[in-house]
Amino acid sequence: MPDALLPYPASLPGWEGDLTRVPFWVYCDERLMKLEQERVFEGPVWNFLCLEDEIASPGDWRTTVVGQMPVVVARDTDGSIAAFENRCAHRGALICLDNAGSGATDFQCVYHAWRYDLRGNLRSIAFQRGVKGKGGMPSGFRIGEHGPRQLRVTTMRGLVFGTFSDDTPVLGDFIGPDVLARFDRVLGGRKIEIIGRFVEVLPNNWKLYAENARDSYHASLLHLFFATFKLNRLSQGGGLVVSPNGGCSVSETIAPTEADDQSYSGMRSVDDDYRLEDARLMDVVDEHPDRVRHQIVTVFPNFVLQKTQNAMALRFFTPKDVDRTNLEWIYFGYADDAPEMRKRRLRHLNLGGPAGFVSMEDGCVGGFVERGIATAEKESAIVEMGGAGIESQATRATEASVRGFWSLWRQMTGL
Amino acid sequence: MSALLRVAKLNAAYAAAIDADRLEAWPDFFVEHCLYKITSAENHKRGYSAGIVYADSRAMLRDRVTALRTANIYERQSYRHIVGLPVLGATGADGIASETPFLVLRITRDGRTDLFASGVYVDRISDEAGGLRFAERIVVCDSSHFDTLLAIPL
């Protein structure tokens, strides 16, 4: 870690032991937030920023956040993409106030009209030479030495990511070849189109959601829909891939076979009498050469790409407070979808989002943990399914990718 | 009874059924080949077709009630709908066009009452055999932010 980073606060509790025990204080100590902002979100990671298509033309821009930092992403006049902190160099006010815009030739802070180009470089200062020879900035003031922090930007399969660190490996290396292959499965080759965008406000620390998205063990136990409709029983084919750095993962499930499965008998989530009146919720059409019906891809620290049946979504989640997280859902289809397929996606999307037959429970369990551990900062969670390692496994009855998340998180935070 | 009163009465009965936890009655407020969608003003304005809930048949609405009763895990909660007066648009072959503002309060197990959602119902109402049913009810929430979960229909 470079010396410029905040020293690790001696007053913070430690992390005793290995990755199979996660101390509960890491979900509820406010002092960690600043450390995570600097070492994780502004560290050697790729933060999801937006879709290329959302800023298709020069002068198009969007605002988003990197952790808790407000950020602008813009398409420059030469067609390249730039991203910079949404903070005026002068007094620190937001430069862009809306979610998105188009046709910009520059950005001007509303407070004192300091003006920036589309890459976030400070270009001019109002009344720099004063008025009628009076006032103004000192002659030695160099505007080129001031400006909001800029990100290094990369694109992959229509998605835009940014990093503040010079040390971040190229994105393909960061996620590794196996995860990249699953990106290509969904995003390679076909142009995508956004069909919905919502924010789910979660009552828990952001890392509880990062774990949930990687946790292939819970899916068929918490979610009745998966188990009942054989979307995701642990004994179905599939497995878990963890990237070499631990932080990225794929969980996938193969279409069910005829063979019945008794491994769940007696557990709450099995109800073989449960049937849909409108079976079109489950009328999957295989769009890929494989038989994978459910695929969750995670990219450290806070991005998820999901394809469940014919429903597709991007998710990214950012901390608002130590116990509050904004989870953004971007629903998409392919631009060349036939009308019938598009409607099928809309129906299958009932599985996801804040009202999703499956994901509504994911929105709640983080809060159940957050409330459960209210006074347990000296205790630890057990993350030992599938052993203590972070390697890929041919089963989803494992917590390897949750341990992988913590492995990279600990490396970056120094904890 | 005037069209305005008939629509207001439909809206009142709809809200009362949900708030009194008579969810099994909720699908019956719709025609068989209906569209029920929950979205936000921003998504609606952009013409995004996806919803937080998207049901294009009454059977899908019944499935949602069954799921809430038997499958999904969530903490006990209830709503209180406050529904304004409808603004009626044109009446055509495809029914009555109507828009009605609403507020929904959510009462959770821990005793809190929160303002959960505000917005407008954008409806197309079928008037057949003397009864009004929703052919289309698009629930356009003012905000695109939804707190934790949206289990009970709006």
**CATH architecture annotation name of the largest domain in chain A:** Alpha-Beta Complex
Helix content of chain A: 10-25%
CATH homology superfamily of the largest domain in chain A? Naphthalene 1,2-dioxygenase Alpha Subunit, Chain A, domain 1
Beta strand % of chain B: over 45%
Global shape of chain A: globular
Percentage of residues assigned to helices of chain B = 10-25%
Distance between the termini of chain B: 27 Å
- By secondary-structure content and strand pairing, the structural class of chain A works out as alpha+beta
End-to-end separation of chain A: 12 Å
Uncertain regions of chain B: pLDDT < 50 for 5+ in a row?
none
Main pleated sheet of chain A: 7 strands, antiparallel
Textual characterization of the structure:
The complex is a heterodimer of chains A (415) and B (154). Chain A has 415 residues and is an alpha+beta fold. Chain A has two domains: 47-154, Rieske [2Fe-2S] iron-sulphur domain (Rieske Iron-sulfur Protein, 3-layer Sandwich); 176-413, Naphthalene 1,2-dioxygenase Alpha Subunit, Chain A, domain 1 (Alpha-Beta Complex). Chain A is built from eight helices and 19 strands. Chain A has helices at 31-41, 171-187, 206-214, 219-222, 224-228, 339-348, 359-372, 400-413; strands spanning 21-23, 47-51, 61-66, 69-75, 81-85, 100-101, 107-108, 115-116, 122-124, 150-156, 159-163, 192-202, 238-242, 249-254, 292-299, 303-308, 311-321, 324-334, 380-382. In chain A, a hairpin with a 6-residue loop joins strand 7 and strand 8 (115-116). Chain B has a single domain (3-141), classed as Nuclear Transport Factor 2, Chain: A, CATH 3.10.450. Chain B has three helices and eight strands. The two termini of chain B are 27 Å apart. In chain B, 37% of the residues are buried. The A-B interface holds A 99, 194-203, 222, 224-225, 228, 271, 274, 276-278, 280-281, 326, 331, 342-343, 345-347, 349-350, 353-355, 357, 360-361, 363-364, 367 and B 38-40, 42-43, 48-57, 59-60, 62-64, 66-67, 70-75, 144-151.
